[in-house]
Design a protein that fits this description.
By secondary structure, this protein is an alpha/beta fold.
């Protein structure tokens, strides 16, 4: 059992009680900061976002994004200071502590600007527009994202982390703000001219993206595979140098292409990367789950925040690796991530929380680090020695502070290697005792907002891994999440994006519709409840109606959404696969399930719209290329009829789930599914037996009533 406490107004004397409960086997999840009195309160106090709440007591007079702030800027003739970040962003915390909590900086900001805070996870549309500005102006971006702009939302300056005082060639707030103040008073025309030029350039970039070109998918796929293989790190695995991101959508792409083309070299590199990540410090060896990314090439030193979307995408990557290879070590990682999610990141509603912070007690990584002297009191001398050897824990420590580069005497637990024999039953017992001991520490802050898009991803991961690994509890968790989203986040006109503490709000974006549809399709193929397929079809159609432009590509914001500087439109894969790429996958899968070829045509329009970008940098669009590969592969539809709950029915499903058929779709014929998919009405069971219809390119083979014959038909697949 886990009990969550947030130390905000909780007195520290209660920690003794929490530690006592921990000794009796109750996992205590303590997060947040110690009790403080608040001298300042600004307009963010009324916001539901945890990130905005974190800044509600800054001396900076923050406003949320909205008409009140922009009207104030126009009325008072001031520029806007726009700061974009998220609740578990380490450098956002650093900038807050150095600058936004500082009274001198705040006084300058309040005199010069109307200051606006935006949670990028609540408003990815705003973030995407102004991140594009930062990348256009500086060649790079990141969070915290700092934008200075006019009251009509036109930017004239873009940056990221800004310290209080200048150092290391980075301008400080104490220099920047007075300089902007002087320019605004004495040379405003120059700033406004610059802002107009930047805005016009941004709009032209958007217009250029609408150019369509020829589809050369095979060439692009080959180029992306070649590029990934050329960047492979032979020493530490992974692709490229430090910092190293898991990028599971790229691993999924290379895994699928390697399996399709029998490319053993690429397959080995995917497995080596998955194994290196699981062995490294980027994986929480004690409590499970992946940290955000590794700051070094060896996967040792992570940025310690844990994001829900990383867990979901990595579950999918390890699940498909298990299907493709049969190697149990990949299945074990899937189960470990699921353990973490279901233990620490699941709300009583069935929704999944967004993230855990990197910091606790003001120190990055403190919750996850160990020094050598801690182990023996917890484990005893013999087991402490085993833990030291297994988790690479040293007296001098292996943790280097990122800012100073100095060893701290602390250790990041990690393994020398990851394979099926790495964790013995004895070591698992040691790990569990360390987890129990760690549970008495003050946990990093938990961002407990529930996002529709990220929940859709986790639903997809749990549903798919549940059917592949025969873990009904995963499927049940996915179903509970789906029911929560459908009951709480669905409106008469669409979807809400964010839920927190009983409040559902913010109009949904493209990713909400696309990722939720993905999750619902996976859930249908896991439990064959036609309600979820019906919902997937409904949201897919709503997505096209709300977000599709004249070229066929999908905007991030709906047709009737707030007008921003430009309407965001993108297919580039960042930390997550793009909404356009996920939508293309969904369109093709639903087309093959329903025989509605207009959906296939809609996917092709997406490919054509972004073809110039795919031509330029295919490795940046791997999830889109996976969708294109699916569209080009010989389609496989498997229709099953008969008693799904019988031993015979389960045997058919088990056999299918053991195969690696990433581009196949599976339908179970029953009354509800026939109402959605009329063509399966004639595909009935033969002589009362469970019957399989294996169809290729919309032509079906003769029905078979044995698992062996079905497998024979499927083994002919090029997939």
């Amino acid at each position: 059992m886990t009990i969550h406490f947030h130390i905000g107004f909780t007195k520290l004397k209660h920690l003794a009680l929490f530690m006592l409960l921990g000794m009796y086997g109750v996992n205590i999840a303590i997060s947040g900061e110690t009790m403080t009195s608040h001298q300042y309160t600004n307009a963010l106090i009324h916001e539901a976002s945890p990130y905005l709440q974190q800044h509600a007591h800054n001396p900076v007079n923050w406003y949320p994004w909205g008409e009140e702030a922009f009207a104030k800027a126009k009325r008072e003739n001031k520029p806007i200071f726009l700061s974009i970040g998220y609740a578990t962003c380490h450098w956002c915390h650093v900038m807050e502590h150095e600058s936004f909590e500082d009274e001198d900086v705040a006084a300058l900001m309040n005199e010069t600007f109307v200051s606006i805070k935006v949670d990028r996870e609540e408003r990815p549309d705003i973030d995407q527009v102004y991140m594009q500005v930062a990348q256009m102006m500086n060649g790079s971006g990141g969070w915290p994202l700092t934008i200075l702009m006019t009251a009509d939302k036109k930017p004239f300056y873009a940056g990221t982390y800004i310290p209080k005082n200048s150092h290391g060639g980075r301008i400080g707030m104490m220099i920047l703000v007075p300089k902007v103040h002087e320019l605004w008073l004495n040379n405003r025309e120059k700033l406004e001219e610059s802002a107009s030029q930047i805005s016009e350039t941004l709009k032209k970039q958007g217009e250029m993206a609408a150019l369509q070109g020829e589809l050369k998918g095979k060439t692009w796929v080959k180029a992306a595979v070649t590029s990934m293989n050329q960047s492979f790190d032979e020493q530490h695995a992974g692709f490229g140098g430090a910092p190293k991101f898991p990028s599971p959508h790229k691993l999924l792409f290379l895994l699928r292409e390697a399996t399709r083309s029998h490319d053993s070299v690429s397959l080995h590199r995917v497995e080596a990367t998955l194994d290196a990540m699981r062995a490294g410090g980027i994986f929480d060896q004690i409590g499970f789950g992946f940290h955000r990314y590794s700051t070094d090439a060896a996967w040792l030193l992570p940025h310690f925040e844990k994001m829900l979307y990383d867990q979901a995408m990595l579950m999918l990557a390890y699940t498909e690796a298990y299907q493709a290879t049969g190697h149990e070590r990949h299945a074990k990682v899937v189960r470990e991530i699921a353990d973490y999610i279901l233990r620490d990141m699941t709300d009583s509603t069935g929704g999944f929380y967004s993230a855990e912070d990197a910091d606790s007690e003001g120190v990055e990584g403190k919750f996850y680090l160990w020094n050598n002297v801690e182990l023996e009191p917890i484990l005893g001398k013999i087991d402490a020695s085993i833990a030291q050897q297994m988790f690479q824990i040293r007296d001098e420590g292996n943790f280097h502070d990122e800012a100073t580069g100095q060893r701290t005497g602390e250790n990041i637990p990690h393994l020398a290697a990851w394979n099926e024999d790495t964790l013995s039953p004895q070591l698992e017992g040691i790990r569990q005792r360390l987890l129990d001991a760690r549970s008495t520490r003050i946990r990093p802050f938990l961002d407990d907002k529930i996002l529709t898009d990220w929940n859709g991803l986790m639903m997809a991961a749990l549903a798919k891994s549940g059917r592949v690994l025969h873990e009904d509890s995963y499927i049940q968790a996915a179903q509970k999440s789906a029911d929560f989203l459908l009951n709480t986040m669905q409106t008469k006109h669409g979807l809400w994006h964010r839920y927190r503490h009983g409040d559902a709000a913010i109009e949904a974006h493209l990713d909400d519709y696309a990722f939720l549809t993905w999750g619902l399709i996976e859930l249908y193929e896991a439990n064959f409840d036609a309600r979820y397929l019906q919902s997937a079809m409904h949201f897919n159609q709503s997505m096209l109606e709300k977000f599709q432009g004249t070229s066929g590509a999908l905007f991030l914001t709906a047709n009737d959404a707030e007008t921003l500087l430009v309407r965001p439109l993108d297919a580039w894969d960042g930390a997550l696969p793009s909404g356009n790429a996920v939508a293309a996958h969904n369109l093709i899968r639903l087309s093959r399930m329903s025989s509605d070829m207009t959906l296939d045509d809609a996917a092709e329009k997406i490919f054509r719209h972004f073809s110039p970008l795919l031509q330029q940098a295919p490795v940046g669009f791997t999830h889109m290329l996976s969708a294109w590969s699916m569209s080009e592969q010989e389609s496989i539809e498997i229709v099953l009829a008969g008693d799904r709950h019988s031993l015979e029915g389960q045997a058919f499903l088990t056999a299918i789930n053991q195969l690696y058929l990433p581009y196949a779709v599976v339908i179970w014929r029953d009354e509800a599914s026939m109402a959605l998919i009329p063509f399966i009405k004639l595909q009935s069971s033969v002589n009362g037996k469970v019957t399989a219809y294996v169809c290729r390119n919309f032509q079906c083979n003769q029905p078979v009533t044995s698992v062996e014959k079905m497998l024979h038909l499927l083994e002919k697949s090029p997939n």
